[in-house]
Amino acid sequence: MEKLTSCYPAGVGLKSNASPKGGGQTALTDNNICERSIRPVTLGRKNYLFMGSKGGGDAAAFAYTLIETCRMNKVDPETWLTRVLAHVADHKMTQLDDLVPWNWTPE
């Protein structure tokens, strides 16, 4: 179970929802945790059909990737994006790693 929760984010909630069985196995009583974790993907799948063009779909995918990367790194996406867009033009090319969400610290 530890291996599952460490490599699969949706598995974190499995500990509280798992019931032990004989032989060291674990059985899940329901899959609500997994269903909730993939809900944005399934809702988005329907909405992505109506992006208007391939360029629009690519732009949306890029934006969603940035937003989810921020969330995964516990960074507020709006604050991060506002700060990065305001400072990226003046930032040194050799220090661009300072702007990525996993290295970013709010001021």
Q: How many runs of DSSP E, i.e. beta strands? A: 2
Q: What is the strand arrangement across the widest sheet?
A: 1-2
On the 0 to 100 scale, the average pLDDT is: 74
Low-confidence runs: none
Largest sheet: 2 strands, antiparallel
Structural class: mainly alpha
Radius of gyration over all CA atoms, rounded: 19 Å
Shape: flat
What portion of residues is helical?
40-55%
Q: Give the SSE string.
A: HHEEHHH
* Portion in beta strands: 5-15%
Helix tally equals 5
Distance between the termini: 38 Å
Structural notes for this entry:
The chain is mostly helical and 107 residues long. It has 5 helices and 2 strands, in the order ααββααα. The protein has helices at 2-7, 14-17, 32-47, 54-72, 77-87; strands at residues 18-20, 26-28. A two-stranded antiparallel ribbon has the order 1-2. The radius of gyration is 19 Å and the shape is flat.
Structure, briefly:
By secondary structure, the chain is mostly helical. The chain has helices at residues 2-7, 14-17, 32-47, 54-72, 77-87; strands spanning 18-20, 26-28.
Tags for this model:
mainly alpha; two-stranded antiparallel sheet; 5 helices
Topology record:
Layout: H1 2-7, H2 14-17, E1 18-20, E2 26-28, H3 32-47, H4 54-72, H5 77-87
Antiparallel strand pairs: 1-2
